[in-house]
Amino acid sequence: MTKVDIISGFLGAGKTTLIKKLLKEALAGTKVVLIENEFGEIGIDGGFLKEAGIQIREMNSGCICCSLVGDFETSLSQVMEQYAPERILIEPSGVGKLDDVMRAIDNAAKHIPDMKLNSAVTVVDAKKAKMYIKNFGEFFLNQIENAGTIILTRTDIASQEQIDAAVDLIREHNSKATIITTPLAFTERTMTMMMTTMIMRSTSITTTTIMKSMSTITTMITRSMSTITTMITRNMSIIMTTMRMISLKAGEWRHRTSTRQKKLRIS
Fold this sequence. Notes:
The chain has 267 residues and is of the alpha/beta class. It has eight helices and seven strands; from the N terminus they run βαβαβαβαβααβαβα. 59% of the residues lie in helices and 16% in strands.
């Protein structure tokens, strides 16, 4: 199963830096395809990608999250057929809506059974979060609202007040996302947290299914045990009644035998 991860964020937020670190560290040794479109941050050096074993497919027909979903689906199908990757990283347009990208992937997955959306990550400059909301409104908020993980960058040069303010702004629009504030310089911890979030998201459906199955099995076992207990109770009642009847009959038989013996002795 090929997992698709979206790395979104506005131009200059640090998407390219994050992708480089993912490829070098967290996804090292994994067969990965990176997809960028012409409005994204085409700032990753081609030589670096070739050395890392990464393939680039640039989409020249425009932003994948606008009206070109058909072209996007075709591109994904070609990528799957040509490379059969374990992971696909998508860096969409910085000015696109994240839910449009997610919808495009979900639609494509209907026709590509071996592919699924794994995670949606939004990269936010901690020093510019307030400005992004003010200047870009719904476009920026859409990326915040639909992300499963939000990574704050520039936290190594931002004040604690700026970081706290950015987290508060994000929480107003997304109360469930995992927010990572560790500077990207501290790669091991950041990558571990991010990959853990990705794994948790990708396994949440499986976990839910297992829990539902376990609940069903437990209910069936409980009902079966209740039925067995009822049958045992009824059978025990019948056995006890039978034993009492036998005891009574035995008492009557002993009484009659005793009476006969007395009569015989008298006679």
